[in-house]
Structure formats: C-alpha cells, structure tokens
Amino acid sequence: MWSALFTFTNGLAVVAWLALLLLPRIALVRSAIMFAGVALLCLIYAVCFGLVVSGNLDPVVAVGAGAVKPGFGSIPAVRAIFASDGGVVIGWTHYLAFDLFTGLWIASDADNKGYGRVIQAPFLAATFIAGPISLLFWLLARERRARAVARAGGGR
Predict the structure, then answer these.
(1) Which residues, including other chains, have CB under 8 Å from residue 84's CB and lie 6 or more apart?
(2) DSSP class of 56
(3) Could you tell me if residue 156 is inside a domain?
C-alpha cells in the first residue's frame, strides 16, 4: 500500500510540475495545480498522518534496548518517525506539497513582476529538487524588481 501511495504522490507531483512549467497560466490551470495538486497532496498527507500517528495504520513503535519513542523533540525521535514506510511516505508527501505550493507561488510572483518563462524555469526546476534553497534564491533575485513595482504603485 505504501509503495503504491508513494508512486501515486510522486506521479501527481510530476504532472502538476509539468503543468506549471509548460501550460499557460490561465486561472483554470493555476486552480488545477492548486487543488488537484497541492490540496490533494495535503489531503493525502493529513489522512495518512492521522492514521500513522494514531497507530491505526503502520504504527511507528519504539522497540529494543535504547529505542527512542517517535516524536518531534530530538533527532533520534524524528528519525524514529521515519522508521516505517508510512512515516517515509507522509514525510515525502509533506515535501511534495510544500515544494509544489512554493513553485506555484514563485511562478505567480514571477508572472506578476514580468519575468519570462525562460528566467523562471531554473528557479522552478530547482524548487522541485531543493525547495528552500530555490526559494531563497528567488527571494533575492526578485527583490530589485519587487521594489520597482512597489515604487510604481503596483505593490500593496
């Protein structure tokens, strides 16, 4: 089950990223990426998280001498969360959802500031691979144009 869900969430994310990179960014496409991509990944994450954390499906159990109870308070506790296939799938789905949301925001922000698709593509591809690093680079790259747009009265 976890393997199939992992494959499904990866496929869903790839289709959404391809749509973001290749299709016109009309309202229908942006909405499809947001709801059929980001929101669906978030829903899958929420359901699986609830089932795993409650112990109803693929419970993460600390076993053996020196075993650490799964949790968020230490590196060993977080590592214990990922000791099950369910923990890995929910962690990966978390990354897929947030990176896709970040990519959608970067694309929208770039469109609003007049950056062409060729300029956007490396940022979006990097966001798919390493979201926080690419977001940092986008925030730095956009700053000059963001200030110019704000001075011209286009900002809020």
Answers:
(1) 52, 58, 59, 60
(2) S
(3) no
